Amino acid sequence: MRIRNTAQVLTVQAIAGSHVVLLAMDMKPGDCDGHLGFAIHRTDHTENEAYWLEGIKTFAATDPGFPAGARYPTNKHPIQGFTWSDFTAKPGHRYTYRVQALRGKPAALKKFKQVEVQVNTEAEEEGDHDIFFNRGAAASQEFARRFKKTPSLERAPPDDPRWAWLSRGAMEAIVAFVARANSNKFALRVAAYEFRLEQFASTLKAAIDRGVDVKVLFDACDNPPDEHGKVFPRDANRETADAANIENIRRVERVTRSGVKNPPISHHKFIVLLKNGKPQAVLTGSTNFSLGGVYGQSNVVHVVENPRVANSYMNCWELISTNPDHGELRKRLSGLNTIPVEKPRRGTTCIFSPQANNDALTWYAKQATVAENALFMTFAFGMNDVFKEAYRSGHSALRYALMEDLLAPGVRKENKPAALQEMKTLRQMPENRFAVGNRIATNHFDRWIKEELTGLNRHVQFIHTKFMLVDPLSDDPIVITGSANFSAASTTKNDENMLIIRGNRRVADVYLGEYMRLWNHYAFREWLAAKGESIDAGFKHLDTENKWWRGYFGNTVRSRQRQYFSGAAG
Length: 570
Prior knowledge:
The protein has 570 residues and is α+β, with helices and mostly antiparallel strands. It contains 14 helices and 25 strands.
């Protein structure tokens, strides 16, 4: 939901997802002289609570001297920025945000402008699309404050509260989807790259025990073994199925290609729900059925309540379940897919891989290039060349990229300097805003607390989601989301699936809120990590020199951000 209101020449636009409300403020630069920042008050009409929201910065003159990790009410220590997000919002709640612009002295702040906006956050389950983002940021100040020093998650019991906090509804959504199959009238078809989540396997076994027709397809390619002689993910997938007593008659071992050293991966993560033999809904997204997928790296569980879409996924499952010849599978899937020429059809369509050519990847890059106002993309395994060109010559004034690493794995050592320079040149362009996953590894900077990772992920630690948003704040947004990494391998080699959703503002708002939550989180941490030992560890107090707001006007990235999110850009 989006709402925009103006009073006393102060404009506030609220963009409400499910767990995030993004607030963007706009004023004329001539009204900013002496402006000390914004105070934000929230009234929760659903839970009948009202209070000033809090930040982490203080004025030097009124600093109460609280310990590291403390938070301060914004009516005493305001927000010095024109965009700010409430990450404590809850789905399906009604909120009123009262935003005040403050002047005066730190000890005697006075409001000189005020505006209110009332929003309803989106329910996670609504309409044709149910969307559940996990926390995706275990290395965070809130996790450090909330749980302090606790034992390793790998040894934590099921009732450890950290699981629920990190899942934030993702695991619960998977369990609830399976639970909908409550009798022998139902069937479930699972396609999994990683089938190594005990809770998920046990949930499926319970469905089998109540008469549900369950079949589990998982990647069983004969990949090179690791240092312990284990083949990933095949051996762990088999062990999980064995432990849950899921019999061989209910298991399909997916082998994409035999007789090759590094076969393509069967990278799906979806479940089709059928009733009386007819597909009803599909659960898909980027979340592997593993502890690291659900509770560690950033991921989304996306349920589509549409029989037509579910039937497409069922057709894909049936195709790959016979382990067809790779070339024949590419031909058949290419025949089933309809790659748009320009914009996709309104509503929801899907694209499956492997495909005969890179037409889908080229089309994604074209959408990135022609975005009119803003582009937002995630890259878990580096940026393909076609997207580098989109970020180099795209039409939009704001182009965000959220990345696990600047370079894809496997770049040869002798090629790394040139590859890094290419990415550095791209991120220095004024339209581009890149952020790379990282964490705060010290207790000595600016009153921040040292952060620890979950230990659940061995390869991708931070950014695993695969989605792109094209002009998400327009009336005709495009959301592309699924299992594929916007790469050539994900297009022509691997088993993959993607949803293309056009014209659904609710879906776009939820995805945009979560994108900015993660982008803001990691952009700061990457900056801090890059500074290393050269960083000034002293606390940076709020500005009282009338300077902080000036960078939000003129031809600057912050100015474009202010205009876009506040609606001033049109």
